[in-house]
Amino acid sequence: MNERKVYSREFKQRAACMVIDDECSVPDVCATLEIGPTALRRWVDQVRKERQGQPVKGTKAITDEQREIQNLKAKIKRMELEAEILKRLAAALDVGSRSFPMIAELRESYPTAIVCRTFGVKRSSFYEWIGRLGQPDARREELKAKVVEVARSKPGRAWAPE
To answer: Which residues are CB-neighbours of 9 under 8 A, at least 6 positions away?
Structure first.
């Protein structure tokens, strides 16, 4: 039984380049390299498409540029999955209540927009929270004044501020 031959990416590229760049005929290259014409034509078509920036689906890239593009796309997909997992982890740990202080701390080292996007928080909401930090809460001040008023109206109590 005939065993199928496996050719390296470099071999395929060199064979296709002999036809494309060196203008050798397909039968001549097939005879020289002892390969079938169907395989060589497929490699030639793939190299031509890859040189035009068109990846051939379902095949490993032959040219270095397309191989790099495939590697980068795989890396992007993996990083997107990792980010999704981290967002779910943050939700499971109930980081939401502490997200603004954490964003404030992380923005010292990372861009605010990216940190907010990672936490699923709108930048405008974060900046609104930052703006409120220095300002006293009006309701809290109102309640504090009432407590002091009640405390002063009851002289002799230990908790009454003077």
So the answer is: 60, 61, 62, 67
> pLDDT tens digit string along 12-37?
989 999 999 988 899 999 999 999 99
Residue 111: inside a domain: no
In this prediction, residue 50 carries a pLDDT of 85
Let me know if residue 26 belongs to a domain: yes
pTM beyond 0.85, yes or no: no
The domain containing residue 65 runs over which residues? 7-93
Is residue 117, in this structure, part of any structural domain at all? no
Q: Is residue 147 part of a domain?
A: no
pLDDT in tens, 59-80: 888 888 888 988 999 999 999 9
Angle between helices 112-119 and 64-92 (to 10 degrees): 60
Alpha-carbon gap, residue 31 to 35, rounded angstroms: 7
Q: Are 122 and 116 in contact (CB under 8 A)?
A: yes
Distance of CA 131 to the CA centre of its chain: 30
d(Cα 11, Cα 5) in Å, to the nearest integer? Answer: 12
Amino acid letter, 132 = R
* Short-list 147, 100, 148, 149, CA closest to 120: 100
- N-to-C CA span, the chain: 102
Domains held by the chain: number: 1
